[in-house]
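Troubleshooting entry. Yesterday's outputs looked truncated, so today I'm pasting the complete records for two proteins to confirm everything comes through intact. If either block looks cut off, that's the bug. Protein one:
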Amino acid sequence: MTTVLLVLFLLVTLALIGVILVQRSEGGGLGIGSSQGMGSFMTGRGTANLLTRTTAILGTIFMALALVLAMLGKGQAPRGSILDAAPPAATVPAVPAAPAAPSVPNN
């Protein structure tokens, strides 16, 4: 169940990113810098287009799925920090022993 919701969450996220990137920039936040001024801010014509509604719907689905996934995964993760656990034993590759030095004859 969680895996299906997680895949759906990923698809909604990608669709939301795509819809946001397709939208045309207005040249400034909240309509600032547009030639119409503040009189056209939040009019019915400006907010009723398809991309704005699609963004709102996908945003709502995104938030709902995020809440559902958070509730489903509430008790599954072990408590504590990863820093509390002992580090795994490091395996050192065996180094071959150096050959013995040749003996020098004493004269």
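Protein two, checking that the full record survives here as well:
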Amino acid sequence: MMSATSTLALTHFVTLADTFDKDKVTPGVLGFIVFAVIGGAVWLLMKSMNKHMKKVDFEEQPQGSEAGGTASAASPEPKTG
């Protein structure tokens, strides 16, 4: 059983739906082109990222050689001359 307010609300929605222009809400060809360009750009970025990630060397160096390398890099070289 519908009340008077719900019936009144539905009649307002029906009149809004009749005046609703469906041509104004579709993205059309331009929307498809923009979406396709963004999709292509994301695909190219992912391809480039995978290429760069394959170049990364993930092997860890032993602790002993790392400490020795930083100590020699921190001490200044003696000047000759």
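Both blocks look complete. Sanity check on protein two: The mean pLDDT is 75.
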